[in-house]
Design a protein that fits this description.
Rossmann fold, 15 helices, globular, Glyco_trans_1, glycosyltransferase activity, plasmid
Length: 363
Protein backbone atom coordinates (compact mmCIF):
# COMPACT_ATOMS: atom_id res chain seq x y z
CA UNK A 1 0.00 0.00 0.00
CA UNK A 2 1.36 3.40 -1.01
CA UNK A 3 0.83 6.05 1.68
CA UNK A 4 0.97 9.85 1.67
CA UNK A 5 0.91 12.07 4.74
CA UNK A 6 -0.07 15.71 4.08
CA UNK A 7 0.20 18.65 6.50
CA UNK A 8 -1.16 22.15 5.86
CA UNK A 9 2.18 23.93 6.21
CA UNK A 10 5.30 23.81 8.33
CA UNK A 11 5.60 27.52 9.13
CA UNK A 12 5.50 27.40 12.93
CA UNK A 13 6.00 24.86 15.68
CA UNK A 14 2.87 24.00 17.61
CA UNK A 15 0.66 21.12 18.64
CA UNK A 16 -0.51 20.40 15.09
CA UNK A 17 3.08 19.94 13.96
CA UNK A 18 3.72 17.48 16.79
CA UNK A 19 0.71 15.45 15.66
CA UNK A 20 1.90 15.59 12.04
CA UNK A 21 5.27 14.31 13.20
CA UNK A 22 3.72 11.36 14.98
CA UNK A 23 1.40 10.52 12.09
CA UNK A 24 4.30 10.50 9.66
CA UNK A 25 6.45 8.36 11.96
CA UNK A 26 3.73 5.74 12.41
CA UNK A 27 2.84 5.41 8.70
CA UNK A 28 5.28 2.91 7.14
CA UNK A 29 7.08 4.23 4.07
CA UNK A 30 4.87 7.31 3.79
CA UNK A 31 5.75 10.23 1.52
CA UNK A 32 5.42 13.67 3.13
CA UNK A 33 3.61 16.61 1.51
CA UNK A 34 2.86 20.21 2.56
CA UNK A 35 1.96 23.44 0.80
CA UNK A 36 5.03 25.05 2.41
CA UNK A 37 7.83 23.61 4.55
CA UNK A 38 10.37 25.77 6.36
CA UNK A 39 12.90 23.25 7.62
CA UNK A 40 13.62 25.03 10.90
CA UNK A 41 9.89 25.04 11.67
CA UNK A 42 9.57 21.27 11.31
CA UNK A 43 9.76 18.81 14.22
CA UNK A 44 13.31 17.62 14.66
CA UNK A 45 12.67 13.94 13.93
CA UNK A 46 11.33 14.70 10.44
CA UNK A 47 13.45 17.75 9.61
CA UNK A 48 15.60 15.79 7.16
CA UNK A 49 12.69 13.97 5.52
CA UNK A 50 12.11 14.96 1.86
CA UNK A 51 8.94 17.06 1.61
CA UNK A 52 7.02 17.62 -1.61
CA UNK A 53 5.76 21.20 -1.47
CA UNK A 54 3.61 23.39 -3.71
CA UNK A 55 4.57 26.38 -5.81
CA UNK A 56 3.91 28.56 -2.77
CA UNK A 57 7.24 27.41 -1.36
CA UNK A 58 8.96 29.88 -3.69
CA UNK A 59 6.84 32.96 -2.96
CA UNK A 60 8.79 35.96 -1.60
CA UNK A 61 9.13 36.41 2.16
CA UNK A 62 7.11 33.28 2.88
CA UNK A 63 8.60 33.10 6.37
CA UNK A 64 7.05 36.47 7.27
CA UNK A 65 3.97 36.59 5.05
CA UNK A 66 2.55 33.07 5.18
CA UNK A 67 -0.58 34.30 6.99
CA UNK A 68 -1.28 37.04 4.43
CA UNK A 69 -1.02 34.55 1.58
CA UNK A 70 -4.09 32.69 2.88
CA UNK A 71 -6.28 33.20 -0.26
CA UNK A 72 -3.69 31.26 -2.28
CA UNK A 73 -3.61 28.05 -0.27
CA UNK A 74 -6.67 26.44 -1.93
CA UNK A 75 -4.90 26.75 -5.28
CA UNK A 76 -1.70 25.36 -3.80
CA UNK A 77 -3.57 22.36 -2.38
CA UNK A 78 -5.11 21.60 -5.76
CA UNK A 79 -1.62 21.48 -7.29
CA UNK A 80 -0.45 18.61 -5.05
CA UNK A 81 -0.52 15.34 -6.98
CA UNK A 82 -1.63 12.47 -4.76
CA UNK A 83 -3.17 10.34 -7.49
CA UNK A 84 -0.71 7.46 -6.98
CA UNK A 85 -1.51 6.80 -3.33
CA UNK A 86 -3.78 4.18 -1.77
CA UNK A 87 -4.02 5.88 1.63
CA UNK A 88 -3.82 9.62 2.25
CA UNK A 89 -3.70 10.93 5.82
CA UNK A 90 -4.08 14.70 6.06
CA UNK A 91 -3.27 16.77 9.14
CA UNK A 92 -5.33 19.92 8.82
CA UNK A 93 -6.67 22.97 10.58
CA UNK A 94 -6.97 24.70 7.25
CA UNK A 95 -6.62 23.50 3.71
CA UNK A 96 -5.18 20.07 2.96
CA UNK A 97 -8.36 18.21 3.80
CA UNK A 98 -9.31 19.43 0.29
CA UNK A 99 -6.58 17.50 -1.55
CA UNK A 100 -7.67 15.45 -4.54
CA UNK A 101 -6.95 11.74 -4.23
CA UNK A 102 -7.46 8.73 -6.51
CA UNK A 103 -11.09 7.52 -6.76
CA UNK A 104 -10.35 4.24 -4.96
CA UNK A 105 -8.00 5.74 -2.36
CA UNK A 106 -8.92 6.18 1.30
CA UNK A 107 -8.50 9.71 2.67
CA UNK A 108 -8.50 10.16 6.46
CA UNK A 109 -8.33 13.74 7.74
CA UNK A 110 -6.99 14.35 11.24
CA UNK A 111 -8.68 17.69 11.88
CA UNK A 112 -7.20 19.96 14.55
CA UNK A 113 -10.14 22.35 14.06
CA UNK A 114 -12.24 23.77 11.23
CA UNK A 115 -10.64 27.00 9.97
CA UNK A 116 -10.93 29.51 12.81
CA UNK A 117 -10.67 32.50 10.49
CA UNK A 118 -13.55 31.21 8.37
CA UNK A 119 -16.00 29.83 10.92
CA UNK A 120 -15.29 32.25 13.78
CA UNK A 121 -14.11 35.23 11.76
CA UNK A 122 -15.36 38.09 13.95
CA UNK A 123 -13.69 36.69 17.06
CA UNK A 124 -10.51 35.74 15.20
CA UNK A 125 -10.07 39.09 13.44
CA UNK A 126 -10.65 41.04 16.66
CA UNK A 127 -7.68 39.25 18.24
CA UNK A 128 -5.28 39.50 15.30
CA UNK A 129 -3.62 42.60 13.88
CA UNK A 130 -4.18 43.30 10.18
CA UNK A 131 -3.26 46.35 8.12
CA UNK A 132 -6.22 48.59 7.34
CA UNK A 133 -6.34 47.72 3.65
CA UNK A 134 -6.20 44.01 4.35
CA UNK A 135 -8.93 44.22 6.99
CA UNK A 136 -11.25 46.02 4.55
CA UNK A 137 -11.23 43.19 2.01
CA UNK A 138 -11.16 40.33 4.48
CA UNK A 139 -14.95 39.79 4.75
CA UNK A 140 -15.25 39.28 0.99
CA UNK A 141 -12.29 36.91 0.90
CA UNK A 142 -13.62 34.98 3.88
CA UNK A 143 -17.03 34.45 2.25
CA UNK A 144 -15.35 32.90 -0.78
CA UNK A 145 -13.08 30.81 1.39
CA UNK A 146 -16.03 29.48 3.38
CA UNK A 147 -17.66 28.22 0.18
CA UNK A 148 -14.40 26.51 -0.77
CA UNK A 149 -13.98 25.06 2.72
CA UNK A 150 -17.45 23.50 2.71
CA UNK A 151 -16.63 21.78 -0.59
CA UNK A 152 -13.18 20.73 0.66
CA UNK A 153 -14.74 19.10 3.71
CA UNK A 154 -16.52 16.64 1.42
CA UNK A 155 -13.20 15.25 0.16
CA UNK A 156 -12.10 13.09 3.12
CA UNK A 157 -13.71 9.70 3.50
CA UNK A 158 -13.29 9.93 7.25
CA UNK A 159 -12.64 12.63 9.84
CA UNK A 160 -10.70 12.20 13.06
CA UNK A 161 -10.93 15.04 15.59
CA UNK A 162 -8.45 15.87 18.33
CA UNK A 163 -11.17 16.43 20.94
CA UNK A 164 -14.91 16.26 21.54
CA UNK A 165 -14.90 20.06 21.24
CA UNK A 166 -13.51 19.89 17.70
CA UNK A 167 -15.75 16.96 16.75
CA UNK A 168 -18.75 19.15 17.61
CA UNK A 169 -17.34 21.99 15.49
CA UNK A 170 -16.83 19.63 12.54
CA UNK A 171 -20.45 18.55 12.86
CA UNK A 172 -21.70 22.14 12.98
CA UNK A 173 -19.51 23.44 10.16
CA UNK A 174 -19.51 20.50 7.77
CA UNK A 175 -22.29 18.17 8.84
CA UNK A 176 -19.69 15.39 9.18
CA UNK A 177 -19.16 12.99 12.05
CA UNK A 178 -15.67 12.50 13.45
CA UNK A 179 -13.91 9.85 15.47
CA UNK A 180 -12.12 11.40 18.47
CA UNK A 181 -8.49 10.40 18.98
CA UNK A 182 -6.68 12.86 21.21
CA UNK A 183 -3.14 13.99 20.27
CA UNK A 184 -0.13 12.09 21.57
CA UNK A 185 1.99 13.28 24.46
CA UNK A 186 5.58 12.13 24.77
CA UNK A 187 5.27 11.37 28.45
CA UNK A 188 8.74 9.81 28.55
CA UNK A 189 10.27 13.28 28.11
CA UNK A 190 9.09 14.29 31.56
CA UNK A 191 10.03 13.00 34.98
CA UNK A 192 8.25 13.59 38.27
CA UNK A 193 10.59 15.63 40.46
CA UNK A 194 10.52 15.64 44.24
CA UNK A 195 11.88 19.18 44.18
CA UNK A 196 9.63 22.16 43.51
CA UNK A 197 10.42 25.83 43.02
CA UNK A 198 8.06 28.73 43.63
CA UNK A 199 7.19 29.77 40.07
CA UNK A 200 4.29 29.15 37.71
CA UNK A 201 4.78 28.52 34.00
CA UNK A 202 3.14 29.41 30.71
CA UNK A 203 4.03 27.19 27.77
CA UNK A 204 2.63 28.59 24.52
CA UNK A 205 3.09 30.53 21.32
CA UNK A 206 2.66 34.17 22.28
CA UNK A 207 -0.34 35.12 20.14
CA UNK A 208 -3.36 37.11 21.32
CA UNK A 209 -5.95 34.34 21.45
CA UNK A 210 -3.85 32.34 23.93
CA UNK A 211 -4.65 35.09 26.51
CA UNK A 212 -1.22 34.92 28.13
CA UNK A 213 -1.89 38.50 29.23
CA UNK A 214 -4.18 37.09 31.93
CA UNK A 215 -1.43 34.95 33.42
CA UNK A 216 0.95 37.91 33.35
CA UNK A 217 -1.51 40.33 34.95
CA UNK A 218 -2.66 37.86 37.62
CA UNK A 219 0.86 36.90 38.68
CA UNK A 220 1.91 40.55 38.63
CA UNK A 221 -1.05 41.45 40.86
CA UNK A 222 -0.28 38.65 43.32
CA UNK A 223 3.48 39.08 43.22
CA UNK A 224 3.89 35.46 42.11
CA UNK A 225 6.80 34.34 39.95
CA UNK A 226 5.85 33.36 36.40
CA UNK A 227 8.10 31.91 33.69
CA UNK A 228 6.70 32.54 30.20
CA UNK A 229 8.11 29.96 27.78
CA UNK A 230 7.51 30.74 24.13
CA UNK A 231 7.80 33.44 21.50
CA UNK A 232 5.46 35.26 19.18
CA UNK A 233 4.00 38.60 18.12
CA UNK A 234 2.41 39.34 21.50
CA UNK A 235 5.76 39.30 23.32
CA UNK A 236 6.49 43.03 23.41
CA UNK A 237 3.01 43.92 24.64
CA UNK A 238 3.26 41.33 27.39
CA UNK A 239 6.62 42.69 28.50
CA UNK A 240 5.15 46.18 28.84
CA UNK A 241 2.45 44.91 31.21
CA UNK A 242 4.67 42.57 33.23
CA UNK A 243 5.82 43.25 36.76
CA UNK A 244 9.20 42.31 38.24
CA UNK A 245 8.15 38.74 39.06
CA UNK A 246 7.60 37.82 35.39
CA UNK A 247 10.45 36.17 33.48
CA UNK A 248 10.30 35.71 29.70
CA UNK A 249 12.36 32.64 28.83
CA UNK A 250 11.82 32.85 25.08
CA UNK A 251 11.77 29.82 22.84
CA UNK A 252 13.34 27.19 25.09
CA UNK A 253 14.98 23.92 24.09
CA UNK A 254 13.27 20.64 24.94
CA UNK A 255 15.71 20.13 27.81
CA UNK A 256 14.98 23.60 29.21
CA UNK A 257 11.21 23.04 28.94
CA UNK A 258 11.53 19.74 30.78
CA UNK A 259 13.54 21.41 33.56
CA UNK A 260 11.15 24.35 33.95
CA UNK A 261 8.08 22.10 33.94
CA UNK A 262 9.46 19.52 36.36
CA UNK A 263 10.07 22.12 39.09
CA UNK A 264 7.12 24.51 38.59
CA UNK A 265 4.16 24.92 40.92
CA UNK A 266 1.64 24.67 38.08
CA UNK A 267 0.89 25.59 34.48
CA UNK A 268 -1.41 28.55 33.87
CA UNK A 269 -3.53 27.85 30.77
CA UNK A 270 -5.77 30.89 30.21
CA UNK A 271 -6.86 30.49 26.56
CA UNK A 272 -9.61 28.48 24.91
CA UNK A 273 -7.85 25.76 22.94
CA UNK A 274 -9.13 23.14 20.53
CA UNK A 275 -7.26 20.56 22.59
CA UNK A 276 -4.14 21.96 24.21
CA UNK A 277 -1.18 19.68 24.83
CA UNK A 278 0.50 21.76 27.53
CA UNK A 279 -1.72 20.60 30.46
CA UNK A 280 -0.89 16.99 29.66
CA UNK A 281 2.81 17.69 29.20
CA UNK A 282 3.02 19.25 32.67
CA UNK A 283 0.85 16.45 34.04
CA UNK A 284 3.46 13.99 32.75
CA UNK A 285 5.84 15.76 35.15
CA UNK A 286 3.28 15.44 37.95
CA UNK A 287 2.37 19.14 37.90
CA UNK A 288 -1.20 20.55 37.93
CA UNK A 289 -2.85 23.11 35.64
CA UNK A 290 -4.87 26.26 36.32
CA UNK A 291 -7.12 26.42 33.26
CA UNK A 292 -9.96 28.37 31.69
CA UNK A 293 -13.10 26.22 31.79
CA UNK A 294 -13.62 25.89 28.03
CA UNK A 295 -12.50 23.95 24.98
CA UNK A 296 -10.08 21.07 25.14
CA UNK A 297 -9.01 21.73 28.73
CA UNK A 298 -12.38 20.35 29.79
CA UNK A 299 -11.25 16.98 28.42
CA UNK A 300 -7.69 16.95 29.75
CA UNK A 301 -7.85 18.58 33.21
CA UNK A 302 -9.67 16.75 36.00
CA UNK A 303 -10.88 19.32 38.50
CA UNK A 304 -9.46 18.78 41.95
CA UNK A 305 -7.18 15.98 40.75
CA UNK A 306 -4.98 17.44 38.01
CA UNK A 307 -5.92 21.10 38.29
CA UNK A 308 -8.44 23.86 38.93
CA UNK A 309 -10.61 25.89 36.57
CA UNK A 310 -11.68 29.51 36.33
CA UNK A 311 -14.91 30.48 34.58
CA UNK A 312 -14.22 33.87 32.97
CA UNK A 313 -11.21 35.28 31.16
CA UNK A 314 -10.48 38.08 33.60
CA UNK A 315 -7.50 38.87 35.79
CA UNK A 316 -9.69 38.62 38.88
CA UNK A 317 -10.82 35.10 37.98
CA UNK A 318 -7.26 33.93 37.41
CA UNK A 319 -6.15 35.48 40.71
CA UNK A 320 -8.96 33.63 42.49
CA UNK A 321 -8.02 30.35 40.77
CA UNK A 322 -4.36 30.70 41.80
CA UNK A 323 -5.38 31.32 45.41
CA UNK A 324 -7.71 28.29 45.38
CA UNK A 325 -4.94 26.20 43.84
CA UNK A 326 -2.51 27.20 46.59
CA UNK A 327 -4.91 26.09 49.32
CA UNK A 328 -5.05 22.52 48.01
CA UNK A 329 -2.64 19.60 48.33
CA UNK A 330 -1.69 17.84 45.07
CA UNK A 331 -0.56 14.27 44.36
CA UNK A 332 2.12 14.28 41.63
CA UNK A 333 1.97 10.53 40.98
CA UNK A 334 -1.81 10.62 40.48
CA UNK A 335 -1.36 13.50 38.03
CA UNK A 336 1.31 11.53 36.15
CA UNK A 337 -0.97 8.49 35.97
CA UNK A 338 -3.64 10.63 34.31
CA UNK A 339 -1.15 11.78 31.65
CA UNK A 340 -0.16 8.20 30.82
CA UNK A 341 -3.58 7.67 29.25
CA UNK A 342 -2.58 10.15 26.53
CA UNK A 343 0.79 8.64 25.63
CA UNK A 344 2.25 8.23 22.15
CA UNK A 345 1.74 4.47 22.46
CA UNK A 346 -1.98 4.91 23.18
CA UNK A 347 -2.33 7.31 20.24
CA UNK A 348 -0.65 4.89 17.83
CA UNK A 349 -2.80 1.99 18.97
CA UNK A 350 -6.03 3.97 18.57
CA UNK A 351 -5.13 5.46 15.19
CA UNK A 352 -3.95 2.12 13.78
CA UNK A 353 -7.16 0.47 15.03
CA UNK A 354 -9.21 3.18 13.33
CA UNK A 355 -7.37 2.66 10.04
CA UNK A 356 -8.09 -1.06 10.25
CA UNK A 357 -11.79 -0.37 10.78
CA UNK A 358 -11.98 1.83 7.67
CA UNK A 359 -10.18 -0.69 5.49
CA UNK A 360 -6.65 0.74 5.52
CA UNK A 361 -4.56 -1.49 7.81
CA UNK A 362 -0.95 -0.41 8.22
CA UNK A 363 0.21 -3.33 10.35
Amino acid sequence: MKIAMVHDYFTQMGGAEKVAEELYNMLPGADLFATVALKDKMPESIRDVPVTTSWMQNLPRMRDLYRLYFPLYPFAVSSLDLSQYDLVVSSSSGYVKGVQVAPDAIHVCYCHTPMRWVWNFDNYSSRESFAGGVKAVLPTLIRGLRIWDEAAARQPDHFVANSQTVAARIKRAYGRSAEVIVPPIDIHRFKVSLEQDDYYVVLARLVPYKRIDLAVSACTALGRKLVVIGSGPALEGLKKDAGPTIHFAGRASDAQVEEYVSRCRALIFPGEEDFGMAPLEVAAAGRPTIAYRAGGAMETVVEGVTGVFFNEQTTEEVVDAIERFERQEWAPLAIRLHAEGFSTEVFREKFAAFLRRVGAPID
